[in-house]
Amino acid sequence: MATPKPALWGATLAAVLLASTAQAATLTVNPGPDAQERLQTALLDAKPGDVVSLAAGRFDFTDGLSLDVDNVTVTGAGQGKTVLSFAGQKGAGEGLLITSDGVTVRDLTLQDSKGDGIKSKGADRISFVSLTVQWTGGPKETNGAYGVYPVSSTNVLIDKVTVRGASDAGIYVGQSKNIIVRNSLAEFNVAGIEIENSTDADVFDNVATHNTGGILVFDLPGLPVMGGHSTRIFRNKVVDNDTPNFAPKGNIVASVPVGVGIMLMANRDVHVFDNDISGNQTSAVMLVSFSRSFDDKSYNPLPRDIVVRDNRLGRNGWLPGLPGGKMLAAATGGSLPPILWDGVTTYPGYDGPAPRLYLKDGPVLNLNLPKAGEVEAAKPTVTATLGSPGLPERAAVVLPVGQDKPAS
């Protein structure tokens, strides 16, 4: 057979694209007594390119929902207009679980899931836009752990999201890569925003307020992905974080003292700049090492390659919720300096250099702990700043073309 001419190839490709576009559909689901079955059926039957549209109104569910189809948009009529209530959920799972790529969830409110609110697992190009996730009974240990929860995902966009009442973290990104969290509000959670065991994250233009801790960047041992690094935290308002810790006992965030603005633990290459940080009773910024035991010899429990510069700091540290915190505050003039570092520079089996830090926004309280957690052996010192410039600036996170469009 003769090879088609280029013009014919172009016509054939155009026809295929038109046919693909024509096949895309909008599947509309309205509230009603059988809405759960109709919505889950729509999520199962959706094809790539389809939109699953939830009308305005309240949807009452007794079970979680799931989506495993690529390139689907799930949209409501707007935050507070389309409300998905899981108050009657019988199981303990997520409200909505997504395990497919190219998915956008937007313009709706999700309430009172027994487990996490909205979770993506193993997804690429996952976008959460203009969402509210909340537990309407206020902060409680029995609330779900995470509000918006992408894990083991790549190219993550969280934009114009509000989360209230999560018993672990409101906005939590774990074991993921290439992340933007922006224009969002996290309040009345244990951790407002948390980046954990993840790489290349930009967290900016958010408000973290009335949480136990505002913004956390952690790296923990014993997880499938470790070695979190390269996070920028900038242009955020981290203010008045004053909610008592209500995390279940044993959770890592259960140890976060009330009133921490930004907390960095065992992570690498984190830059904190151009933020407004005030009204946090324990500390504006804390740098701490991981203090629990671990077996993985590749794990580094120290915060390192950290830059804290050019932030606007208000009143912080007047009532630190740390062991010996009142004595420390009294010894430093009635409140802790804005930056607190545990001062741990080594750990068993480590013989490398001390961590590189540039903490410009001092004074800096260095606890000089001999090892993580030994607060009673601290010999605190206060310095105007700590370290010197020289750590390279991080490049901005760039998402795939088409994903990083401003939320309307």
From TrEMBL:
Leader sequence segment: 1-24
SUPFAM superfamilies cross-referenced by the UniProt entry: Pectin lyase-like
Keywords, in A-Z order: Signal
Origin superkingdom: Bacteria
Gene3D superfamilies attached to this UniProt entry: Single-stranded right-handed beta-helix, Pectin lyase-like
Residue span, Right handed beta helix domain: 95-241
InterPro entries according to UniProt: Beta_helix, PbH1, Pectin_lyas_fold, Pectin_lyase_fold/virulence, SO_2930-like_dom
NCBIfam families for the chain: beta_helix_1
Name of the protein in question: Right-handed parallel beta-helix repeat-containing protein
Source lineage: Bacteria, Pseudomonadati, Pseudomonadota, Alphaproteobacteria, Caulobacterales
